[in-house]
TrEMBL record:
Residues 44-246 form the DUF4350 domain. The chain crosses the membrane at residues 275-293. InterPro entries: DUF4350. Keywords: Membrane, Transmembrane, Transmembrane helix. Pfam families: DUF4350 (PF14258). This is DUF4350 domain-containing protein.
Amino acid sequence: MSARSKLLILTFCLLLVLAAASLYQLFALRFEAGDIFPAGSSLRSDPQGSMALYQALERTGRVKLQRNYRSLAHQKVTASTILLLGNSHHELATADKKEIAELDQLVAAGNRVVVAFNPVTTAPACTSAPAAKPVGPKPPKPVKAADTAWGISTGYLPAAEAPDKTLVKATLVEPGLALPAEIRLLSRLTLQPPPTGWRTIYAVDGKAVLLERSIGSGSLVLVSDSSLFSNEALKADRQAALLVWLMGEHRRIIFDEYHLGVSEQGGIMALARRFGLLPLIGVLLLLAGLYIWQQSIPLISAAGPGSDDRAVGVTHDSFSGLVSLLQRNIPVNQLLKVCCQEWQKSFKRELEQDAGLRKELHDAMTAQDDPVARYQRIARLRAERMRR
């Protein structure tokens, strides 16, 4: 291989390594920021994520934290606090009854489930003028409270009470709880529970924003503003007492990522990550690449035009190996003598019956003339003896 080809291959390998490193750095920056995950995810480190809360709880060392990437309906979870953050409040009207029943089963098993909805900072505009008669298809019928999840209906605070991007002050309704008398919310969303089964914890002018319900040995909490758990809130307006109450008394807290669409993909790579086999796979790929390179590019280059090494570039079979061995270990003037000695050992019985051939071998070992002519003479004499 020429020096130019080697230089091109080396340059290509360096460019490939640089491209892979740049791509890895790009993905590392995106994953570090976490903006590829939905709002409310504990994998996001930007203001809309909840990574700060996850890490703060982890540093206390008093609770066992877990991120869940699989359906909770297929898991046996007990005595845990399950955080479902970043939900859309429209899901209350569109939720499947089967999903609601599965969530109720989780609560009845002794878990505390906290469902927090994304903050709503802009409410639909409403006017006092009578609406014009619609043209075209009829608008959909309003969803009844009985058809929504748990019978909860939603509403919005008037603009006068909560202008956009202004914190809403909610007051404590349940007097028997050790909670702040007033909390601050960003969302204008309100939750209207059915007459029985729920208790209102916080409300704004009689409109509930935080509800709790007991099912079996567990409890279900609905929060109209998931920004309470966000990284931004923990930095700018931390409400620690409320967060401690929301977490409950359980020592195991699960940040559910599955309901946000962040699921665990099965397969060989998932198992490799779980059991720490990625370095081994990297080493195996490196060895495979070296093997392919060794098979495609010879380690010993061919002899150049002015090379004096006769062994370089020679086809290495058994005959060439024997010739090379003889050339390196037997001098030229002793070659015929060595051949005759080996001939005497190999054909001892034949030589005992043929005195002429025996004499020729003896003379060849002591003669100083042309060894090639002597060898040809012995071979011709032996061939004549064999034809008789």
